[in-house]
């Protein structure tokens, strides 16, 4: 019988877990785990999936789209409503927008405040 594995957490390296957790908390509406601290912070996700943020000394941001410093992880989020409005809101929260946008009008590639690339896609 094959083993069933359920994905329950995705963890991102970063220089300051509480700061990055605050960005994703505002971006997604997920709640900060009460035991979050300066070394590890987490957001309680939907359907049991959580997003974690762990402190890494000498953190180096990914350099996307080139791979001089590999991205290591790429998260996609489906959004409700207008893609441009969602993008503007995320940029105001501290996201970045790389010049390279390979998906046309279907999606946007943004980066979180420490450089992890992520996409927003219309639902």
Q: Structural class of the secondary elements? A: alpha/beta
Q: Please work out how many helical segments DSSP would assign.
A: 2
Unreliable runs, pLDDT <50, ≥5 residues? none
Average of the residue pLDDT scores = 92
Mind summarizing the main beta sheet?
A: 4 strands, mixed
Helix content: 10-25%
Distance, first to last CA: 35 Å
Task: Give the overall form.
Answer: globular
| Number of β-strand runs | 7
Order of helices and strands: EHEEEEHEE
Report the radius of gyration as a whole number of Å.
15 Å
What does this structure look like?
- The protein is α/β, with parallel strands linked by helices and 123 residues long.
- The chain is 19% helix and 28% strand.
- It is built from two helices and seven strands; from the N terminus they run E-H-E-E-E-E-H-E-E.
- Strand 2 (31-32) and strand 3 form a beta hairpin.
- The longest helix has 12 residues, at 17-28.
- The radius of gyration is 15 Å and the shape is globular.
- The mean pLDDT is 92.
């Amino acid at each position: 019988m094959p083993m069933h594995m359920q994905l329950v957490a995705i963890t991102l390296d970063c220089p300051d877990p509480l700061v990055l957790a605050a960005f994703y908390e505002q971006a997604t509406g997920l709640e900060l785990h009460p035991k979050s601290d300066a070394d590890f912070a987490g957001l309680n996700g939907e359907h049991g999936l959580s997003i974690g943020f762990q402190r890494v000394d000498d953190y180096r941001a990914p350099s996307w789209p080139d791979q001089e410093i590999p991205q290591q992880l790429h998260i996609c989020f489906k959004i409700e409503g207008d893609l441009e409005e969602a993008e503007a809101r995320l940029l105001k929260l501290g996201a970045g927008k790389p010049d390279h946008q390979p998906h046309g009008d279907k999606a946007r590639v943004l980066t979180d405040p420490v450089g992890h690339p992520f996409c927003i896609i219309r639902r």
